[in-house]
Amino acid sequence: MAKEYSGSPxxxxxxxxxxxxxxxxxxxxxxCILFYMLGAWQRSSTPTTTQFSAYNKGGCDSHVTTSDNxxxxxxxxxxxxxxxxxxxxxxxxxSKTVNQFPSCDMSFSEYTPCQDKVRGRKFDxxxxxxxxxxxxxxxxxxxxxxxxxxxxxxxxxxxxSRDYAWYSNIPHRELSIEKAIQNWIQLEGNRFRFxxxxxxxxxxxxxxxxxxxxxxxxxxxxxxxxIDTGCxxxxxxxxxxxxxxxxxxxxxxxxxxxQVQFALERGVPAMIGIMGSQRLPYPARAFDLAHxxxxxxxxxxxxxxxxxxxxxILRPGGYWVLSGPPIHWKKFWRGWERTREDLKQEQDxxxxxxxxxxxxxxxxxxxxxxxxxxxxxxxxxxxxxxLKAPHMCESDDPDTAWYRNLEACxxxxxxxxxxxxxxxxxxxxxxxxxxxxxxxxxxxxxPGITAERFEEDNKLWKERVAHYKRIISPLPTGRxxxxxxxxxxxxxxxxxxxxxxxWVMNVVPINSNHDTLGVIYERGLIGTYQDWCEAFSxxxxxxxxxxxxxxxxxxxxxxxxxxxxxxxxxILRPEGTVIFRDTVELLVKIQSITDGMRWKSQIIDHESGxxxxxxxxxxxxxxxxGEATQKQL
Length: 633
Prior knowledge:
By secondary structure, the protein is of the alpha/beta class. Among the domains are: 202-384, Rossmann fold, CATH 3.40.50.150; 430-621, 3-Layer(aba) Sandwich (Rossmann fold). Helix content is 27%, strand content 17%. The protein contains 18 helices and 19 strands. It has helices at residues 9-44, 117-120, 174-178, 205-213, 235-240, 259-265, 305-313, 329-332, 340-356, 378-387, 432-435, 439-442, 451-471, 492-496, 517-522, 551-555, 561-571, 584-594, and strands at 64-66, 72-74, 164-166, 186-188, 191-193, 225-229, 246-251, 270-272, 287-293, 314-323, 360-365, 368-372, 482-485, 503-509, 526-530, 543-549, 572-583, 599-604, 614-621. The longest helix is centred in the N-terminal third of the chain and has 36 residues, at 9-44. The N and C termini lie far apart (113 Å).
């Protein structure tokens, strides 16, 4: 075989090929590095906070902030804008015009669709059925925007809001006149002041709660969730917050005009609701404490129906506190304008109902009386065999509460192996209770949710809320107080928000795959059931921030999502914020509707990056008000 010399043409050709290949590899590598660096630079240029132009009032170009006194102040706009454009946008027909929703008449400024007074008159007055939820038929639904009152101002920040509210936001003097002696509310110039008084606590709610605290443990973390029936302006719940007790206050929309609206304006949890013919929209074993202070509920009537409902929603070992008539009637009967015989008969009847529920009377002192629910039904079932009472409910799901009629029976507790065991499982004290695995998950009674999944959900929402903090600059500043999670699952979002000066109404849609509201209460949080094809039981302009994760995937084929968005607009305060999480297709559809609702919005990528199909839509309701009527001028 011939030897190849260094000057051989074949050798030169081989070296040339190798050099060309090396040059090609180096060129491709350089281009890859260059494009990678450009991409990294482009992503790093994204700012960490958002300035929403929608905070402008009256169409001004300057960014607006609001001072504590509610007056608008011009802020400095950011020099950069967060790129909210989705990387996977669905192209819409650009020729399609946005459907602009008109403003409703000012007479609808305080419209509550499912508690409308005119519609309510058509229903039976027996058991106050006419004050229960009666939602409008499809042809009655409004396709307009509920206007804020003229001169509406941003509410006071918490904790100042506990004591003050602007008169222009809730222009009702009735309670300040009717309840003047009881110190519910006082009108001082252009604002209301809430002295903390109540019908049964003339010395103030703080002193009244101290009296209760001498009878039962209020400060050691044992009691975390409470319910106040017939709450007035929710001073009881407002001052329980000082003891780390979260109270669900409710009252009907009745002659005491706007009492729940006042409560929410103060930054205190509340709902429109009533003890009527149906269960309250809460799960069984939800509350550690139930309270009635002259709430005018006939506890002794209808075979103890209403106390049986309190028993259903009260946790094993929970307390019921009653003050006012007929408690301690021997001393107070003259001031109540009732006969001693009548008051004695009422108290005896209440005592009998409580005994039939197997409750133990803890104490009666001054105008307070306290009962305690047993931690299990071991002894109760033994006495039932002897006395043939009380009647135990046969319902297979005590948590079912949406439009479910009340039953005059005892809701059975989960079985226990010993008379010393807490039915359903014992819970940690607050604040450990928030992050501990809830008993319903620990026992496996919530299908599909394990302890591992619970921990993963906690971690997930900590990351997501941290992301929200980066893109919504006012989140940790006290700008928001009343927050609603429209699809709360197991309360991960609300738990991640516990470090902020907020409270969260955790809503579990009745159409959810899992009924998780009981888990939420076991974590020391509060919430309610809801069908979002109907309006929520609250007044207009009562929430600062609304969170909707996966909600529209759940409801897109159930009802017209336009009406869900219109109700969100109704309950959202001017300049309030909404965070949607859903598929990009749904978010684009939502945005096309909200563009006609005077909202400003932008779609941004998922916190994990642009390749996640779930996106985030952040929207802000712009400031606008209705025009003053001749009556208001």
